[in-house]
Amino acid sequence: MKNYLADCHLHTNFSFDTNTDILDYCRRAREIHLDEICITDHFDLDMRKGMKKILDLDENLKAIMDAGLAFPDLKVSKGIEAGITPHTAERMQEMLASRDYDYIVCSQHLVDGMDIFFERNFFNVGRASSYARFLEVQYELLRDYDFWSAVGHMGYFTRYFPSADRKLRLSDAPDIIDAILKTTAVRGKAMEVNTAGFTETGDMLPPFQIIKRFRMLGGEIITVGSDCHGPAKLFDRIPLALALIQKAGFSYYATYSGLKPGFHKIG
Ligand SMILES: [Zn+2]
Ligand SMILES: [Zn+2]
Fold first, then answer.
1. Which of 156, 174, 159 is nearest to 110 (CA)?
2. Could you tell me if 264 and 254 are in contact, meaning their C-beta atoms sit under 8 angstroms apart?
Protein backbone atom coordinates (compact mmCIF):
# COMPACT_ATOMS: atom_id res chain seq x y z
CA MET A 1 0.00 0.00 0.00
CA LYS A 2 1.19 3.51 -0.80
CA ASN A 3 2.21 5.61 2.19
CA TYR A 4 -0.04 8.50 3.10
CA LEU A 5 1.69 11.73 2.07
CA ALA A 6 0.85 15.04 3.72
CA ASP A 7 2.26 18.51 4.30
CA CYS A 8 0.54 20.28 7.19
CA HIS A 9 2.21 23.68 7.31
CA LEU A 10 1.85 26.01 4.36
CA HIS A 11 1.15 29.67 3.69
CA THR A 12 -1.01 31.23 0.98
CA ASN A 13 -1.67 34.83 -0.04
CA PHE A 14 -3.80 35.16 3.10
CA SER A 15 -0.45 35.36 4.93
CA PHE A 16 1.39 38.69 4.86
CA ASP A 17 4.61 37.07 3.68
CA THR A 18 3.63 35.36 0.41
CA ASN A 19 1.50 35.89 -2.70
CA THR A 20 0.91 32.22 -3.47
CA ASP A 21 -2.62 31.28 -4.49
CA ILE A 22 -4.06 28.29 -2.65
CA LEU A 23 -4.89 26.60 -5.96
CA ASP A 24 -1.19 26.63 -6.93
CA TYR A 25 -0.54 24.40 -3.91
CA CYS A 26 -3.41 22.08 -4.84
CA ARG A 27 -2.04 21.66 -8.37
CA ARG A 28 1.48 21.04 -7.10
CA ALA A 29 0.20 18.60 -4.45
CA ARG A 30 -1.51 16.55 -7.14
CA GLU A 31 1.60 16.63 -9.33
CA ILE A 32 3.71 15.12 -6.53
CA HIS A 33 0.94 12.74 -5.44
CA LEU A 34 0.22 14.09 -1.99
CA ASP A 35 -2.90 12.86 -0.20
CA GLU A 36 -3.36 15.91 1.98
CA ILE A 37 -2.30 19.49 2.46
CA CYS A 38 -3.28 21.53 5.49
CA ILE A 39 -3.39 25.29 4.97
CA THR A 40 -1.97 27.15 7.97
CA ASP A 41 -1.96 30.88 7.28
CA HIS A 42 -0.61 33.31 9.86
CA PHE A 43 -3.15 34.43 12.41
CA ASP A 44 -1.65 37.14 14.63
CA LEU A 45 -3.54 39.61 16.74
CA ASP A 46 -0.47 41.75 17.33
CA MET A 47 0.37 43.57 14.14
CA ARG A 48 3.70 42.14 13.04
CA LYS A 49 5.96 44.15 10.78
CA GLY A 50 4.79 43.67 7.19
CA MET A 51 1.21 42.86 8.19
CA LYS A 52 -1.43 45.13 6.72
CA LYS A 53 -4.45 43.65 8.46
CA ILE A 54 -5.56 40.92 10.80
CA LEU A 55 -6.43 37.72 8.95
CA ASP A 56 -10.14 37.40 8.11
CA LEU A 57 -10.71 33.89 9.45
CA ASP A 58 -14.02 33.33 7.67
CA GLU A 59 -12.72 34.43 4.27
CA ASN A 60 -9.68 32.22 4.77
CA LEU A 61 -11.80 29.19 5.76
CA LYS A 62 -14.04 29.72 2.74
CA ALA A 63 -11.04 29.80 0.38
CA ILE A 64 -9.78 26.54 1.89
CA MET A 65 -13.16 24.85 1.51
CA ASP A 66 -13.54 26.11 -2.07
CA ALA A 67 -10.10 24.68 -2.91
CA GLY A 68 -11.17 21.35 -1.43
CA LEU A 69 -14.25 21.33 -3.67
CA ALA A 70 -12.15 22.17 -6.72
CA PHE A 71 -9.76 19.28 -5.99
CA PRO A 72 -11.96 16.41 -4.75
CA ASP A 73 -9.17 13.84 -4.87
CA LEU A 74 -6.97 15.89 -2.50
CA LYS A 75 -7.74 16.48 1.16
CA VAL A 76 -7.39 20.22 1.80
CA SER A 77 -7.59 20.69 5.56
CA LYS A 78 -8.64 23.77 7.45
CA GLY A 79 -5.65 24.72 9.56
CA ILE A 80 -4.28 27.90 11.07
CA GLU A 81 -0.93 29.02 12.44
CA ALA A 82 -1.90 30.80 15.64
CA GLY A 83 0.88 33.24 16.53
CA ILE A 84 0.46 33.16 20.26
CA THR A 85 1.54 35.89 22.71
CA PRO A 86 0.63 36.35 26.39
CA HIS A 87 -1.70 39.30 25.87
CA THR A 88 -3.57 38.01 22.80
CA ALA A 89 -3.93 34.30 23.59
CA GLU A 90 -7.28 34.63 25.34
CA ARG A 91 -8.94 36.49 22.48
CA MET A 92 -7.32 34.21 19.96
CA GLN A 93 -8.71 31.19 21.77
CA GLU A 94 -12.26 32.62 21.64
CA MET A 95 -12.03 33.47 17.95
CA LEU A 96 -10.74 30.04 17.00
CA ALA A 97 -13.09 28.05 19.25
CA SER A 98 -16.15 29.45 17.53
CA ARG A 99 -15.00 28.21 14.11
CA ASP A 100 -14.65 24.87 12.45
CA TYR A 101 -10.93 24.03 12.26
CA ASP A 102 -9.22 20.75 11.54
CA TYR A 103 -5.84 21.71 12.96
CA ILE A 104 -4.40 24.55 15.04
CA VAL A 105 -0.65 24.86 15.12
CA CYS A 106 0.44 27.12 17.93
CA SER A 107 3.58 29.09 17.09
CA GLN A 108 5.58 31.68 18.92
CA HIS A 109 7.23 34.32 16.74
CA LEU A 110 7.39 37.13 19.31
CA VAL A 111 9.07 37.34 22.67
CA ASP A 112 8.69 40.25 25.08
CA GLY A 113 7.05 42.26 22.31
CA MET A 114 9.87 41.66 19.83
CA ASP A 115 9.44 39.89 16.49
CA ILE A 116 12.51 37.70 16.41
CA PHE A 117 12.61 37.78 12.59
CA PHE A 118 13.40 41.50 12.70
CA GLU A 119 14.76 42.15 16.18
CA ARG A 120 18.01 40.24 16.45
CA ASN A 121 19.07 42.47 19.37
CA PHE A 122 17.16 39.99 21.48
CA PHE A 123 20.21 37.74 21.22
CA ASN A 124 22.58 40.35 22.70
CA VAL A 125 22.14 38.82 26.17
CA GLY A 126 23.84 35.67 24.86
CA ARG A 127 22.82 32.24 23.76
CA ALA A 128 21.92 30.77 27.17
CA SER A 129 19.73 33.64 28.34
CA SER A 130 18.03 34.35 25.03
CA TYR A 131 17.24 30.69 24.29
CA ALA A 132 15.93 30.12 27.83
CA ARG A 133 13.76 33.24 27.74
CA PHE A 134 12.11 32.34 24.45
CA LEU A 135 11.36 28.80 25.62
CA GLU A 136 10.12 29.97 29.02
CA VAL A 137 7.48 32.22 27.43
CA GLN A 138 6.51 29.43 25.05
CA TYR A 139 6.15 26.98 27.93
CA GLU A 140 3.88 29.31 29.91
CA LEU A 141 1.60 29.81 26.91
CA LEU A 142 1.36 26.11 26.16
CA ARG A 143 0.67 25.40 29.83
CA ASP A 144 -2.01 28.07 30.19
CA TYR A 145 -3.99 27.51 26.97
CA ASP A 146 -5.54 24.42 25.53
CA PHE A 147 -6.95 25.37 22.11
CA TRP A 148 -3.99 24.12 20.09
CA SER A 149 -3.39 20.82 18.32
CA ALA A 150 0.38 21.04 17.88
CA VAL A 151 3.42 22.99 19.06
CA GLY A 152 4.67 24.84 15.97
CA HIS A 153 8.35 24.88 14.99
CA MET A 154 9.83 24.56 18.50
CA GLY A 155 13.22 26.28 18.39
CA TYR A 156 12.13 28.67 15.61
CA PHE A 157 14.20 31.52 17.06
CA THR A 158 17.43 29.54 16.62
CA ARG A 159 17.15 30.09 12.85
CA TYR A 160 18.12 33.71 13.50
CA PHE A 161 20.83 33.32 16.14
CA PRO A 162 23.96 35.12 14.84
CA SER A 163 26.37 32.15 14.80
CA ALA A 164 26.74 29.05 12.64
CA ASP A 165 26.33 26.93 15.77
CA ARG A 166 22.72 27.80 16.45
CA LYS A 167 20.81 24.52 16.60
CA LEU A 168 18.81 24.02 19.79
CA ARG A 169 20.31 21.41 22.12
CA LEU A 170 18.73 19.81 25.17
CA SER A 171 21.60 21.22 27.21
CA ASP A 172 20.58 24.79 26.25
CA ALA A 173 17.66 24.74 28.69
CA PRO A 174 17.03 21.16 29.86
CA ASP A 175 14.32 21.94 32.43
CA ILE A 176 12.23 24.21 30.22
CA ILE A 177 12.58 21.96 27.19
CA ASP A 178 11.43 18.99 29.28
CA ALA A 179 8.52 21.01 30.64
CA ILE A 180 7.36 21.84 27.09
CA LEU A 181 7.73 18.23 25.97
CA LYS A 182 5.95 16.83 29.03
CA THR A 183 3.04 19.29 28.81
CA THR A 184 2.61 18.39 25.16
CA ALA A 185 2.79 14.64 25.85
CA VAL A 186 0.57 14.55 28.93
CA ARG A 187 -2.15 16.59 27.24
CA GLY A 188 -2.17 14.36 24.17
CA LYS A 189 -1.03 17.17 21.89
CA ALA A 190 1.27 16.95 18.88
CA MET A 191 4.82 18.14 18.36
CA GLU A 192 5.15 19.56 14.88
CA VAL A 193 8.30 18.66 12.96
CA ASN A 194 8.98 21.66 10.73
CA THR A 195 11.41 21.07 7.89
CA ALA A 196 12.15 24.76 7.24
CA GLY A 197 14.74 24.50 10.02
CA PHE A 198 17.10 22.39 7.90
CA THR A 199 18.25 25.43 5.90
CA GLU A 200 19.64 27.53 8.76
CA THR A 201 20.17 24.98 11.54
CA GLY A 202 21.00 21.78 9.63
CA ASP A 203 18.22 19.94 11.46
CA MET A 204 14.46 19.86 11.84
CA LEU A 205 12.60 22.14 14.23
CA PRO A 206 12.73 20.83 16.87
CA PRO A 207 15.97 18.93 16.21
CA PHE A 208 16.23 15.13 16.18
CA GLN A 209 17.61 15.00 19.74
CA ILE A 210 14.53 16.79 21.08
CA ILE A 211 12.09 14.63 19.10
CA LYS A 212 13.79 11.60 20.61
CA ARG A 213 13.44 13.11 24.07
CA PHE A 214 9.73 13.82 23.39
CA ARG A 215 9.25 10.10 22.68
CA MET A 216 11.13 9.15 25.88
CA LEU A 217 8.87 11.44 27.92
CA GLY A 218 5.74 9.76 26.55
CA GLY A 219 5.06 11.89 23.47
CA GLU A 220 2.93 10.02 20.95
CA ILE A 221 1.82 12.49 18.30
CA ILE A 222 3.99 14.01 15.58
CA THR A 223 2.83 16.19 12.71
CA VAL A 224 4.95 17.29 9.74
CA GLY A 225 5.09 20.48 7.73
CA SER A 226 7.41 22.25 5.31
CA ASP A 227 6.29 25.77 6.33
CA CYS A 228 6.47 26.63 2.64
CA HIS A 229 5.56 30.03 1.26
CA GLY A 230 5.44 28.87 -2.37
CA PRO A 231 4.58 25.65 -4.25
CA ALA A 232 8.21 24.86 -5.16
CA LYS A 233 8.90 24.04 -1.50
CA LEU A 234 5.75 22.02 -0.89
CA PHE A 235 6.63 18.73 0.87
CA ASP A 236 10.27 19.89 0.95
CA ARG A 237 12.45 17.46 2.94
CA ILE A 238 9.46 15.76 4.56
CA PRO A 239 10.64 12.25 3.52
CA LEU A 240 13.97 13.00 5.22
CA ALA A 241 12.16 14.23 8.35
CA LEU A 242 9.92 11.15 8.44
CA ALA A 243 12.99 8.88 8.35
CA LEU A 244 14.44 10.80 11.32
CA ILE A 245 11.12 10.73 13.19
CA GLN A 246 11.03 6.97 12.74
CA LYS A 247 14.59 6.70 14.01
CA ALA A 248 13.53 8.72 17.07
CA GLY A 249 11.03 5.98 17.94
CA PHE A 250 7.78 6.88 16.19
CA SER A 251 6.05 4.44 13.83
CA TYR A 252 3.25 6.85 12.91
CA TYR A 253 2.70 10.52 12.21
CA ALA A 254 -0.62 12.32 12.37
CA THR A 255 -2.82 14.65 10.38
CA TYR A 256 -5.92 16.26 11.88
CA SER A 257 -9.64 16.38 11.08
CA GLY A 258 -11.99 18.33 13.31
CA LEU A 259 -9.09 18.81 15.77
CA LYS A 260 -8.69 15.03 16.17
CA PRO A 261 -5.55 13.17 15.08
CA GLY A 262 -5.60 10.41 12.50
CA PHE A 263 -2.46 8.26 12.28
CA HIS A 264 -0.44 7.23 9.23
CA LYS A 265 2.29 4.60 9.19
CA ILE A 266 5.81 5.84 8.47
CA GLY A 267 7.89 3.79 6.02
ZN1 LIG B 1 5.78 30.29 12.03
ZN1 LIG C 1 4.45 29.12 9.16
1. 156
2. yes
Q: Minimal CA–CA distance to 155: which of 204, 106, 214?
A: 204
Contact 196, 231 (CB under 8 A): no
CA 205 → CA 42, 187, 192, 253, 263, distances in Å?
Answer: 18, 20, 8, 15, 21
CA 1–ligand 1 middle distance (angstroms): 33
CA atoms within 13 A on the CB side of 106: 29
- pLDDT score at 47: 79
Q: In angstroms, what is the span from residue 226 Cα to ligand 2's centroid? A: 8
State the Cα–Cα distance between residues 237 and 226, nearest whole angstrom: 7
* Cα of 228 from ligand 2 centre, angstroms: 7
Query: Which residues lie at CB < 5 A from ion ligand 2?
Result: 81, 227
Ligand in nearest proximity to the CA of 40:
2
153 vs 135: CA distance, rounded Å: 12
Of the listed ligands, the closest to the CA of 108 is 1
Query: What's the whole-model pTM score?
Result: 0.97
b/e per residue, 192-206, with b = 16+ CB within 10 A?
Answer: bbbbbbbeebebbbb
Ligand 1 mean position, distance from CA 192 (Å): 11
pLDDT single digits (tens) 19-73: 999 999 999 999 999 999 999 999 999 878 888 889 999 999 999 999 999 999 9
